[in-house]
Design goal:
7-stranded mixed beta sheet; globular; 457 residues; N-utilizing Substance Protein B Homolog, Chain A; 4-stranded antiparallel beta sheet
């Protein structure tokens, strides 16, 4: 089959394991698409994931049988085409429709060509010729991530006055269970801000390797390559305009920068760590926080980085070599028994989580809340188990840092209380929750997350 950007996007959406972003990386590694087409494939695939429920609501409104489930891949072909029509001004509408019709044939669904053509053209007839504009919330307007909206010819969403939470969930493609949680926890206005942030296109933010360079020097290096970039407000990172590959940047190849969101950077910045310390990093792959710890230690001391497989450990080692770090040793979880208990000055437990603080970067994560009612419960059990195991390795006078990229209370402050109760030798001394923000200004962007610091006696 011909590998076009749109075909690659549709293929990624059909991933059976529910990880379209991971499958997309696999597909792009196997194709020879030029940089512009690779970027378009990413935009279409991840955009369709971010706006899935919004797209489906519009599609259902134009079906003769709105509750009828569409066959695969017709559903994903329609999502990719409609995403272009509603959210990408640079793609002509006729091109999106024509390509969708041709895709039906390439994906062996030729009998669906007439249906796809008719549905998309019916939507186009209702769309105004005028560009998107700032409009008040309404059941017949599609909000876009830039704050503008497109009016349709019919109501496709819940009434924002009668059902405000359902309206936010539908128009910002947020599972209703999450919208309800956020409304109760943060209030309706903050819920809307978080929902809008979850559909934003996240910027590329890299932490500067402070052990080897500075923000100013990195910006100068990027300018020499004519790569636009700006300093982030945290003073530790740079925001880089979109590129096809980080390997094209000399600063990356030289180990002067490492992709990392400012919220994650702040976790290590809060740690009490110094050169010569002995540090244990649980769930360490791909080594982003591991290498940050090593930088703060000036590459002196010892870090043991742990993860579940040899493959993940190799990813840590690769990053360490690029960043010029040689104090990190890796081991799998099966080898933890070789480590001496209560022998590390700092233990970091950056645990797997529900990812609700990073939905702009990992949009498929939100749908797991909708598909599996036990999803969060299982995560919380695993987090407590991991944190408990990590706490056994903290030396007297040392620190345990628990961190997560979630904003759910069960994974944050409630978990911190459980850890302190289970590990009575640890005292909770500090905690911080960060909500996602900065969708309108990349230099102020940060994901959501949480960290808690525990101190031993």
């Amino acid at each position: 089959m011909e590998h076009t950007a749109r075909d690659t996007a549709v293929q990624a959406l059909r991933d059976r394991d529910g990880h379209p972003s991971r499958y997309l990386r696999y597909l792009l590694a196997r194709t020879q698409l030029p940089p512009a087409d690779r970027a378009l494939a990413r935009e279409l695939a991840m955009g369709a994931v971010r706006r899935r429920d919004t797209l489906d609501a519009v599609i259902r409104a134009y079906l003769a049988q709105p509750d009828k489930k569409l066959p695969s891949p017709t559903d994903d072909i329609l999502r990719v085409a409609l995403y272009q029509i509603l959210f990408l001004d640079r793609v002509p509408n006729f091109a999106a429709v024509d390509e969708a019709v041709e895709q039906a044939s390439r994906f062996h669904h030729k009998r669906q060509q007439g249906f796809i053509n008719g549905l998309l053209r019916a939507i186009l007839r209702d769309l105004p010729d005028a560009p998107a504009e700032i409009l008040p919330p309404s059941a017949d307007a599609v909000p876009r991530d830039d704050g503008t909206s497109l009016h349709l010819g019919k109501a496709v969403f819940p009434d924002p006055r009668a059902n405000p939470t359902e309206y936010i969930a539908a128009t910002y493609s947020l599972p209703l269970v999450l919208a309800e949680r956020w409304r109760v926890q943060f209030g309706p206005e903050k819920m809307r801000e978080l929902a809008r942030h979850s559909i934003a296109r996240p910027p590329l933010i890299c932490r500067v390797n402070g052990w080897r360079s500075s923000v100013e020097a990195v910006l100068a290096s990027l300018a020499e390559q004519n790569q636009p970039a700006r300093a982030h407000e945290n003073g530790l990172s740079v925001v880089i305009d979109p590129i096809d590959s980080l390997m094209s940047l000399q600063a990356f190849r030289d180990g002067l920068i490492q992709p990392q969101d400012p919220t994650a950077t702040a976790v290590v910045a809060a740690a009490r760590v110094k050169p010569g310390d002995r540090v244990l990093d649980f769930c360490a792959a791909p080594g982003t926080k591991t290498t940050h710890l090593a930088e703060r230690m000036e590459n002196r001391g010892e870090i043991v980085a742990v993860d579940v497989t040899e493959e993940k450990c190799q990813r840590i080692e690769t990053n360490c070599r690029r960043l010029g770090i040689d104090i990190v040793k890796t081991c799998t979880t099966e080898q933890l028994g070789r480590l001496e208990l209560q022998s590390f000055n700092l233990v970091l437990a950056d645990v797997p989580c529900g990812n609700t603080g990073v939905l702009a970067r990992r949009p498929e994560a939100k749908w797991r809340f909708e598909e599996d009612g036990e999803f969060l419960s299982q995560i919380v059990r695993d987090q407590l188990s991991l944190a408990t195991a990590a706490g056994q390795y903290v030396a007297p006078g040392g620190q345990l840092i628990y961190s997560t990229c979630s904003i759910e209370p069960e994974e944050c402050e409630q978990m911190a209380r459980k850890i302190a109760k289970r590990l009575d030798r640890l005292k909770l001394t500090d905690q911080k929750q960060t909500l996602p923000a900065g969708a309108d200004n990349p230099t102020q962007w940060h994901d959501g997350g949480y960290h808690a610091i525990f101190q031993t006696g």
